[in-house]
Amino acid sequence: VQLQASGGGLVQPGGSLRLSCAASGSIFGINSMGWYRQAPGKQRELVAGITSKGSTNYADSVKGRFAISRDNAKNTIYLQMNSLKPEDTAVYYCNADILGSSWRYFNYWGQGTLVTVSS
User: Fold this and answer.
1) Which of 39, 57, 60 has the alpha carbon at shortest distance from 48?
2) Pick from 108, 103, 113: which is nearest to 37 by CA?
3) Which pLDDT score is estimated for 114?
4) Strands (E), 39-89
5) Of 26, 44, 25, which is closest to residue 35 (Cα–Cα)?
6) Which residues are within 8 A (CB) of 101 and not within 5 positions of it... i.e. 6 or more apart?
7) Percentage helix, strand, coil, to 5, in the chain?
8) CA-closest candidate to residue 75, choices 33, 23, 27
9) In angstroms, rounded to a whole number, what is the distance separating the alpha carbons of residues 95 and 108?
10) What value, to the nearest 5°, has the Cα angle with vertex 41 and ends 114 and 46?
11) Phi, psi of 104, deg, nearest 5
12) Number of separate helices (H) and strands (E) present in the chain
């Protein structure tokens, strides 16, 4: 099982980016999925999460600007990021609880995608 994140890049303050994360491999179910980020010198923090039924939660710092969604048919989650600020600069990681061929849920991390917000 692998998580492949994409969509990061350089954007000016006030701009938008859309991150994607696709799960692949022997997958029999996916429970919660989410996006985390880690800025230089800081701890990794939860940005947004989404359950298998579509319930969402967000860090206070991104509420109203970011939106998480998922496509269960594609085993993919997205993070639409609007009104980006320099303090959103970080490596963004996707995370998921996945039911594999062992018939147990394991937690997986994607490789990270860098988002840089700068003029």
Assistant:
1) 57
2) 113
3) 97
4) 45-50, 56-58, 66-71, 76-81
5) 44
6) 26, 28
7) 10, 55, 35
8) 23
9) 6
10) 60
11) -130, 150
12) 0, 11
CB atoms within 10 A of CB 11: 18
Q: How confident is the model at residue 113 (pLDDT cuts 50, 70, 90)?
A: very high
Please tell me the distance from the alpha carbon of residue 111 to that of residue 92, in angstroms, as a whole number: 9
For residue range 45-94, list pLDDT tens digits in order. Answer: 999 999 999 999 999 999 999 999 999 999 999 999 999 999 999 999 99
Q: How far apart are CA 119 and CA 34, in angstroms?
A: 28
Tokens of 68: 């998480």
Tokens 């994140």 correspond to 5
> Does the structure show a pLDDT above 90 at 101?
no
What does the block give as tokens for 26? 């022997």
Rounded percentage of the chain residues whose pLDDT exceeds 90: 96
Q: How confident is the model at residue 14 (pLDDT cuts 50, 70, 90)?
A: very high
In the chain, which residue ranges form alpha helices assigned H by DSSP? none
